[in-house]
User: Fold this.
Amino acid sequence: MKNFQITEWLQRFIREQVRPGDICIDATMGNGNDTALLSQLAGDRGRVLAFDIQQIALDHTKEKLLQERCPDNAELFLESHENMEKYAESETISCITFNLGYLPGGDHQKATHAESSIRAIKAGLRLLKKRGLMTLCIYSGGDTGFSEKEAVLEYIRHLDPKKYLVIQSEYVNRPNNPPVPALIIRL
Assistant:
């Protein structure tokens, strides 16, 4: 088996989830990798909403979408992920992806925070359709600290098991606070 990065591991589940015509959200577009993947999977009939608070993220994502020759189905918003409900209707989203922490190669002082990330996760759960998937890649340590990781994990551990299946995984033999992946499936 290939030595997957956590984001690649999560993308395996995204590939299984998203179908042509789906509506998807990249809650933290960063450098555009997940936005491009969602765009390609949703296809010409689909739609992708992508959010970030940094202009550099939007610029990188625009470039990535062009480089990957993605369909013209992505809308990029210079806005916090906690406001995603302004742009989509309840129970219409097939897949939402989050990468919590800071923009790789960007300003480490501009990072996601527990309070706004949990509000965004709550909003995303309201938007997910039945059998919809939310992926979370939770970075911690170094510049971003551990408070967001602990708060997000605490929140998702207590989601109603009759409404959501929550799966958390972890690297157990990697140093330097590796990211924690989690999947949430709306039942």
